[in-house]
Every structure is written in C-alpha cells, then in structure tokens.
Amino acid sequence: MTDATWEWDETLYAGSASHYRVGRMPYPPGLAEAIGAALDLDGTGRLLDVGCGPGSLTLLLAPLFEAAVGVDADRDMLTEAQRRADEVGATNVEWRHLRAEALPADLGTFRVVTFAQSFHWMDRPLVVGRVRDMLTPDGAWVHVGANTHQGVTGDDPLPYPRPPWQQIDELVASYLGPVRRAGQGLLPTGTPSGEGEIMRGAGFTGPTRITVEQGIVVERSVDEIISAVFSLSSSAPHLFADRLPAFSADLRQLLTAAARDGRFAERRRDIDVAIWRP
C-alpha cells in the first residue's frame, strides 16, 4: 500500500468532484499532440485511463483512439466525467466505477493505459502487474505528472497577485491539523515515490520522458482558488465536517483580501510524461 499508516477508503475525494471543473486548470491540447506523436497514435486501438477522476485526461486523449474507458473508485467523479463527455459530444468513451485493484475486470486489452496523478493512491505492485497483462504487445503505460490546481511559484511580475498558497496551507492546517489528511487516514510522509523500481520490477522498460512546456500566465478568480482547495484530497470538503461553513468563510476572506479586483494570476506548470513499455 501507499503508506503503512494509511489505507484507501471511499471518502478520499468525497465532495471534491464538483470542484474539479472550476478549480483545476485544464490540460493543454499540446499534451494530446505530444503523446500522440510519441506513440504514433492514429485513431485505432483502445485507451484505459486509471483513476480518471472527472475525465480530464480521458476526454483529451479519446479522439486519438477508437474507444476509451475511464475507471475510478469515486462515483461522483464519474458522474462529472459523463457530464463533461455529453457537453463535448464524446461518443467513444465509457466509464466504469471500480478500484484499480479490481482490474482487469473483463475490460479486455488496450493500446495505451494512462495514470494521471493517481498511481500513488493504489497498491502499486498489484496494479502494475495486472495492467501489464492488459496491454497489447505494442502497448504503452503513460504516466502524466502535473499539479493542475496550483501554478509555478516565483517572483516574476504578473498582472495580478499570486494566490497566497502558503497562507492557504496554514489555514487548512489550523482546521485539520499539521499532518496531511487523506480519506479517514493520515499521510505523515506524503504520497510515496519509487515508481521506477516498481515498473522495472514488473518487467517494464523505460521510461521515455517528454515535457509539454506551458509557462502560460492565466488569470484565476477567488471562486476558482476556493474550488482548487476543495479539489484536493488533503482538503476535501468532508474533512471539515460541521466546520465546513466556517472554513469556507475564512478561506474566502483570506483570498478576497489577497486578490486585486477579485483576481489572481499564475503561470502554468510544465507537464511531465513518462512512457513505459512492457
């Protein structure tokens, strides 16, 4: 598992799904172009997105495949994913409510399997072995690493103030305590690393790494930053229980005081992609 003191439970992102659309910065179209070029994708084959959340990556990549499947353990995330699919007219995507540990779940084989900031929540040795058997002979495992709730730190001039992320973290800690919360448990040392060892131990080779450079400056509203905070497992709405209204009010007060005309600005982070071959 991810940590000896922590076990997954279904409340991990409880209440967060509706905040993703508002609080998470979308993946750029260039990410799909880069992955498509690296893997010579031509509209054939199938995509499996594991821990798909509200379908942000699934829907971006789905046009590169004949069909796509997004799986997630949070039913509310899949409801949001279907809503997004309906809005963009995606007809080649289906959603399945299950944990990654339940794979292969009779889903068949796939040309590409993606994990976007989700692998660390899983029993990684178990999942990597099962997913390896689901890949076609020419298939690839693609890990997308990107912090989409928060931009790059820095002191270069921007058109509006940066969100006061340090003060936000301090406010969260004042309500939830200094140790990172996750579902019903704690992550005193954060989420685990060591992905490379696990992948190579399961017989994968690589990785091939590509970077999608952004650096784009975006404006964000107070409401967007509030949703960004609630989109995180460490500050998911359920964690505050009956103190949620008080925390929400304190957070809004902090952000309103720090913003200018209700606006912030941030520079988007680069997106790192690691491609592994079985």
TrEMBL record:
Keyword annotations from UniProtKB, A to Z? Methyltransferase, Transferase
Q: Which GO terms describe its molecular function?
A: methyltransferase activity
Show the stretches that span the lipid bilayer.
none
Give the matching Pfam families.
Answer: Methyltransf_25
Biological process terms in GO annotation: methylation
* Classification via Gene3D superfamilies: Vaccinia Virus protein VP39
Every copy of the Methyltransferase domain together lies at: 48-139
Instruction: Give a yes or no for keyword Membrane in this entry.
Output: no
* PANTHER family per UniProt: METHYLTRANSF_11 DOMAIN-CONTAINING PROTEIN, METHYLTRANSFERASE TYPE 11 DOMAIN-CONTAINING PROTEIN
Q: What is this protein called?
A: SAM-dependent methyltransferase
Give the originating organism.
Micromonospora inaquosa
